[in-house]
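sry for the spam today, last one i promise. struct tokens for design, 152 residues
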């Protein structure tokens, strides 16, 4: 059975950065190399110990939108468990409340951009937020017929 691909967007959430499988392999290999070098040549081992630290702390913070769930940092929200959706275009926020009472807030200002001018930054963040929020709201409505009927 094929594993569905997740749509991944850079998002500055408050949780820890996600570490991919390749990054984990690189982290373990560089840690072993740094330990071996520290036994053979102490100063070189200390310098080589910086590489695993950079690999560990250099992970990107992302928002992953899947077919049945969304992952933001340490939180996983299943669309079928969402009881309330609040989309505020003016405030630039999307709030998802689950059946367990947890609330996930996605904000427009937390989407990074490479633009330098304030108007371009605002336009890029708004475009990215609109794209992501439209995907999430559509998937929540498909997974939860009660919200679709209520006009979430």
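last one done:
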């Amino acid at each position: 059975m094929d594993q569905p691909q997740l749509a991944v967007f850079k998002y500055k959430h408050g949780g820890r950065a996600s570490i991919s499988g390749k990054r984990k392999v690189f982290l373990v290999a560089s840690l072993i190399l740094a330990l071996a070098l520290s036994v053979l040549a102490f100063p070189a081992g200390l310098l080589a110990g910086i590489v695993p630290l950079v690999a560990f702390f250099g992970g990107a913070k992302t928002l992953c939108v899947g077919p049945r769930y969304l992952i933001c940092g340490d939180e996983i929200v299943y669309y079928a468990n969402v009881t309330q959706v609040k989309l505020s275009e003016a405030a630039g926020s999307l709030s998802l409340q689950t059946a367990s009472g947890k609330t996930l807030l996605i904000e427009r200002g937390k989407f990074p951009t490479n633009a330098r001018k304030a108007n371009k930054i605002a336009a890029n963040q708004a475009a990215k937020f609109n794209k992501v929020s439209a995907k999430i709201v559509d998937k929540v409505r498909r997974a939860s017929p009660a919200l679709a009927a209520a006009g979430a």
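The two ends are 33 Å apart (CA to CA). ok im logging off now
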